[in-house]
Amino acid sequence: MPRENIPQSSIKKLEQFFSKTLDTNNDGLVNWTDFEAAIESIVSKDEAAKNARLKVLRKRLEQHFQKYFWDLCAVGDANKDGNIDLDEWLDVMNDIIGGLKDKNEFPEWYEGLHKALFRANEFLDERAVLKDEFANMLISWDIDESSSEKAYDFITEHGKKKMDYNLFSEFMKKFFLNEIPKHPLNLGLD
């Protein structure tokens, strides 16, 4: 299938995003095991067992991630094997990027993942996320601290804008649409 919405210059960035943020066990496939590992890295079962608030947070994460995973499979699992391989994911991203170009919005099912990821973090204030908090969130996605901080400075205009969910969503849109090599929006993945 041709991927007319993904510029050739963005393929490596998207492949790296797949490998670092989704394919947690590096087997070339995204499946429920990868999502379970992501949940465990955000709120471990041990932490959740000791703290009622973390238990609720973990349960919500499991619900959001499960919904996202099944939505992703419904949209992208072309061979219906319960896994999303890199080619299937790039086909999904081609459609998502096309939607961003046309309407500047993510599909509702995909936006839900970003909301869950953002809200799963321990921020002092969700309406004004600090640079180190943002960097810690992206480090959990296996993005290096320096690249995370550069992206934060760029999207917040060096702190002039407050990092909240809306700005984070805008950041993710720009990440997927950006075609300029070595730009801070690329998170060092190109």
Automatic annotation (TrEMBL):
Positions of the EF-hand domain: 9-45, 64-99
Coiled coil (residue ranges): none
This protein's UniProt keywords: Calcium
InterPro entries per UniProt: EF-hand-dom_pair, EF_Hand_1_Ca_BS, EF_hand_dom
Gene Ontology terms for molecular function: calcium ion binding
Annotated Gene3D superfamilies: EF-hand (1.10.238.10)
UniProt name for this protein: EF-hand domain-containing protein
Species this protein is from: Rotaria socialis
